[in-house]
Amino acid sequence: MIRNILAISGRPGLYRLVSRGKNMLIVESLADGRRMPAYARDRVSSLADISIYTTDEDRPLPEVLKALDAHTGHKPVDVAALAQDADLRNYFGEVLPEFDRERVYSTDIRKLFNWYNALLAAGITSFTDEEEEGAEKAEGNTAE
Fold it and tell me: Is 42 exposed, middle or buried (0-12, 13-18, 19+ CB in 10 A)?
């Protein structure tokens, strides 16, 4: 599911991949359901392909979203209450203590929280792909 959720540079919000055309993607806004094209010149990123810098190795965004979901108890993050950069960074430090404080900017954290809220508002609560979950279950069965 998360692989079909896209962020498009220069456009606010998140989009669901609906269809693929010759030189474009047809996407649907999670906020209002409007469909529009995303052309080859647009920088389109799947949320599954984004990662967060940490002090060891980068953490994939789906893992960070799962940690955030567990930390908040499946509730939206009150971004307005975290107006100060120090508050924002401290809160994110509770979710992901090993994040790289020099390479992860406050704007990135704010965007992550807004994306998380948008996903919850759209009813998306599974932050891993079904194929990944199936592979993990298969690995678990063979290990036993």
Answer: middle
Those residues with Cβ within 8 angstroms of residue 19's Cβ, 6 or more apart along the chain or in another chain: 25, 26
Supply the pLDDT for residue 130.
Answer: 57
What are the structure tokens assigned to 125, written together? 């609560």
Residues near 133 by Cβ (< 8 Å), separated by ≥ 6?
none
φ, ψ of residue 37 to 5 degrees: the values are -85, 150
The whole-number mean pLDDT for each consecutive block of 10 residues of the chain, a chain of 144 residues, reads: 90 94 92 92 93 94 95 93 92 95 95 95 83 45 43
> Measuring CA to CA, how many Å separate 78 from each of 48, 50, 75, 91?
24, 23, 9, 11
For the entire predicted model, the pTM comes to 0.85
Buried b / exposed e along 5-24 (16+ C-beta atoms within 10 A): bbbbeebeebbbbeeeeeeb
Asked whether 22 and 37 are in contact (CB, 8 A), the reply is no
